[in-house]
Amino acid sequence: AVVVAAGYWWIRVSPITAPLAALLIGHSLACIAFAAHELSHNAVTRQRHLKYLVSLLAFGVNAVPPTMWNRLHNDAHHGNAGTPADPDRPVLADENRPATAWYARVFYPSAASWKSILVFCHFISYLLRNMAGVFYPADRKPSIITSKPSYRRHERVWIAVEIVWMLGLQYGVWLAAGATWWALTWASLVPLFQSRPTNRSPV
């Protein structure tokens, strides 16, 4: 967290070297995300309220609603890994649609998609499509989502609150880095463009 804050200060005082600061921030955010992942698996503490508060900050600065992550990753992925109910699985043949084929070509890391710079936005697109899926009614979902866990009404409300919290954090980043779009781009948007490593195509 100290290194990330130092990166914001760096961008504020030396905007011309902001791309270098973005590398530092991006690496540090990835480390924070990894720590948050371990925290979500009870590897750091099992105290529910403490775990949630730390997750809210650590996942929040990485644009991940912790309640959605718990349902999507901890429950649905780890509870159904490698099955049709796994939200991280590839698209099945009978689920292939024009939208899924387009998504795979543009965002999903594969031999073909590396021709597109947008492949580096894969994790952001992963989060955005699953955030959208949270608010689809019942079992409905965008076609680019392979499998969607069920969300209770109070979970949807809480995820909405967490998204507002995340936007508040991004406003704080805006202010800390100098309150310009140039500063926000290098302090937040570029560092968050982390590619999700995989060797499988979803289609």
What would you say this structure looks like, in words?
- This protein is an all-alpha fold and 203 residues long.
- 59% of the residues lie in helices and 0% in strands.
- It is built from eight helices and no strands.
- It has helices at 2-13, 18-40, 48-60, 66-79, 98-106, 122-134, 153-176, 181-192.
- Helix 1 packs antiparallel against helix 2 and helix 2 (18-40) crosses helix 8 (181-192).
- The model is unreliable at 194-203 (pLDDT under 50).
Q: In terms of topology, how is this protein built?
A:
Elements: H1 2-13, H2 18-40, H3 48-60, H4 66-79, H5 98-106, H6 122-134, H7 153-176, H8 181-192
Q: What is the mean pLDDT?
A: 87
Shape by Cα distribution: globular
Largest sheet, in brief, is:
none
The helix content is 55-70%
Distance separating the two termini: 38 Å
Q: Briefly note the structural class of the backbone.
A: mainly alpha
- Number of separate strands: 0
* % residues in beta strands: under 5%
Detail the poorly predicted runs.
194-203
Tags for this entry?
mainly alpha; 203 residues; single chain; 8 helices
Brief summary:
The chain is built from eight helices and no strands.
